[in-house]
């Protein structure tokens, strides 16, 4: 699941009704696609790059032989495709009759480079693992689809958080391949200001811990990871929800202790470093006009990571040839940055997109 969602999700997933149910996991097929001699933008290379994925549904071809019902959904920082099996997402969209019912669509949930069951530093290379960025991750997703799954066209590409940023990169890099884009919880601008600051603090907390040992640790650098996770929890916080669920000092303190005890054992320091650093050169701002897909871009007003007061979205949205930006008002139902995974909040916008995209 999304580390920036799983870690952040510590706040939200600890609340009622967020456990993974067996019915959400049933029916999915898992696989690995290996790319030989993958060359990264950094100039580094891996003899074999493994991209893990899950699929559900049946690909259907049109009269021209092209698959026309493929949907790819991209996770956020630190995550995996499995996060989308949570009931607040799968139970809404993948249910029979849902907007993304697998009876109609061929759904692909990949694990990005450095994430989930795909190749990552903790597999053994540690800091000798290539320093991937978002362009590398998008290229690997494209090759998974075209070379691994035989999909050369997407009806829909939906991405959350980091996956939202990948959606903008996708729209510019492969403008003819996607009918509809739905970026959720991001901005098409360089990672700067407070967004860069908290990421830098996460990375510095790990590398400043003497136990990190330049990435050659024998035990996880827990002091650094504790500080990093503290920042992640705040970055993903939802103020109205937190106030309601943690109404007094004792509740908040108990939650903090429980969250740390549950989440720290799940982390790997090198993986987290690479995941956060991958955003370092992200900047789709110069080529927004190149996007040909129909775009429904949705952010939430209580998103700490993408605060609406910056005005970036309002300035960027008119540059999309066929795009619309929607800001969800903050409410007791929104989940801050994590609103991207609660489909009930934006499913009507998804319906508009699918109905309107050719």
Report what the structure shows.
With 358 residues, the protein is of the alpha/beta class. The protein contains 13 helices and eight strands. Helix 5 (134-148) packs across helix 6 (162-173), helix 7 (193-207) runs antiparallel to helix 8 (222-235) and helix 7 (193-207) packs antiparallel against helix 11 (269-277). The longest helix has 15 residues, at 134-148. The radius of gyration is 19 Å and the shape is globular. The chain starts with a helix and ends with a helix. The relative contact order is 0.16.
Descriptive tags:
358 residues, alpha/beta, Rossmann fold, 13 helices, 8 strands, globular, disordered N terminus
